[in-house]
Amino acid sequence: xxxxxxxxxxxxxxxxxxxxxxxxxxxxxxxxxxxxxxxxxxxxxxxxxxxxxxxxxxxxxxxxxxxxxxxxxxxxxxxxxxxxxxxxxxxxxxxxxxxxxxxxxxxxxxxxxxxxxxxxxxxxxxxxxxxxxxxxxxxxxxxxxxxxxxxxxxxxxxxxxxxxxxxxxxxxxxxxxxxxxxxxxxxxxxxxxxxxxxxxxxxxxxxxxxxxxxxxxxxxxxxxxxxxxxxxxxxxxxxxxxxxxxxxxxxxxxxxxxxxxxxxxxxxxxxxxxxxxxxxxxxxxxxxxxxxxxxxxxxxxxxx
Amino acid sequence: xxxxxxxxxxxxxxxxxxxxxxxxxxxxxxxxxxxxxxxxxxxxxxxxxxxxxxxxxxxxxxxxxxxxxxxxxxxxxxxxxxxxxxxxxxxxxxxxxxxxxxxxxxxxxxxxxxxxxxxxxxxxxxxxxxxxxxxxxxxxxxxxxxxxxxxxxxxxxxxxxxxxxxxxxxxxxxxxxxxxxxxxxxxxxxxxxxxxxxxxxxxxxxxxxxxxxxxxxxxxxxxxxxxxxxxxxxxxxxxxxxxxxxxxxxxxxxxxxxxxxxxxxxxxxxxxxxxxxxxxxxxxxxxxxxxxxxxxxxxxxxxxxxxxxxxxxxxxxxxx
Lengths: 304, 320
Description:
The complex is a heterodimer of chains A (304) and B (320).
Chain A (H helix, E strand, L loop, with lengths): L12 E5 L6 H8 L15 E2 L2 E2 L5 H7 L4 E4 L3 H4 L6 H12 L4 H14 L5 H4 L9 H14 L4 E5 L7 H18 L2 E6 L2 H7 L2 E6 L2 E7 H6 L4 H8 L47 E3 L5 E3 L13
Parallel strand pairs in A: 1-6, 1-7, 4-5, 5-6
Antiparallel strand pairs in A: 2-3, 7-8, 8-10, 9-10
Helix pairs in contact in A: 4-5, 4-7, 5-7, 7-8
Chain B lengths: L5 E12 L8 E13 L4 E5 L6 H8 L7 E6 L2 E2 L5 H10 E4 L13 H12 L4 H14 L16 H14 L4 E5 L7 H18 L2 E6 L2 H7 L2 E6 L2 E7 H6 L4 H9 L49 E2 L5 E2 L5
Helix pairs in contact in B: 3-4, 3-5, 4-5, 5-6
């Protein structure tokens, strides 16, 4: 990923939209300092509640992760340990970060499970993950995320494996929790429907950069970047059987990105300079920002 | 109306399961007496959540499982009696495209061999004729003929799914079972495949059984939609009718759970609570009554039959 910038206020929800390989998961892992070996943040900063996380040691980060920033991943079975009871796993953040023990800890776990709408929590907390349904497991992961009382939750495709009615329940639950606790949410998804339902702001990623971001209404009403436009046109809408707009070609490989604008080989409005110069951010009046030469007609012409 | 390509009547599949040593064998009623017909050049959408029996239905049609009861008629003849050449003809005519093109194509075979395999098994064509047919179907799905020499790993997800569709079209295909064919693809590639499928249907007149869980996608591609819940069809109607006027509370719940296409879309009322009950312990009466916001006393006692209403919409619910 390359030169990604965005900001998020308390209680706000940001949607990070992109296809596989667009860099959205890498962005999230950089925030919490969990990049795989070999990957490095070579520039820029991650400022969380006034502190730059890129300058923190792993030890300091460990105290932030799970407590002030929590992560919910796509597959709850991969996040839960099959050998430990639900109680032990939900209790862990409160045990380590808040030194809760005994009865207080039990009470805390019970209220967390109740908060994510697990029926009869005092019984279910003795269960193991395999005894629960997919929707319940994902709510358990949600309970673990909330256990430390975080001010930011990063949810990476949390509902992709869930059935539609269960997905709707889970999204409603996250909204309720956000209203109650004022937690900020980063929602990583490829599904624009989730963005329309959940988010205040959107950042659209393509080829490792954010190509457009802005308030959710501005993006849906008047998308500026051809990729955003194409993405919105390619989704089936209920009650309409008009042909879909098909974006030609494939998403690019991050290891061999096209020169200039990464989207230019698939862009219906590509110009000569798009293949040569990387576009810069242009601010539009409605609060959105897009990286596209179409928006900068007056910009300096390409050299050469 | 012309004879349907495929007609399913009272189709039932029960799986025996043992829950423990010495336990009495129980039955999972995966598919429990469903009826539907698919006409030539038509797409029937089959929608429902995991465990509703949609994949079992496709397995029964593809002869991967024998039905417990009920019949499947292909072009007017019951397939249960098919043997020899008739069976071969059925296997040629009914093909499948699976969700995940990464596991449905053999990594050791070249694309041309993958597409030629059903031709070698099911037809008497010469090598040259098979090669020509492979090139034809590759062109049909929008791939250049020179990709025939490549292996699946050299393709992206969308291209692999095109190869799978080409394989399904290679024989004299009249019905393709599409089991969540775009769910595993990138969003920007999904529209390519959906448009391609629609185009192929217009030009070749092939019928589709489109299995999915995303209401908007299924409604977009299907002429008619059947909604399944725990092994039963609870509602069946024209795609447009179903979108405008869903009747069954479960169909309504699916619409309420569908994601908006714009942030200003009217807010849906709260979605239904609870989860799909276990297929091992089906609720008595209407299977949906445990989650239904409109449930009445009768719903937990009497199972509602699928009734046809004016305009051909069929619904299984005591409210109507």
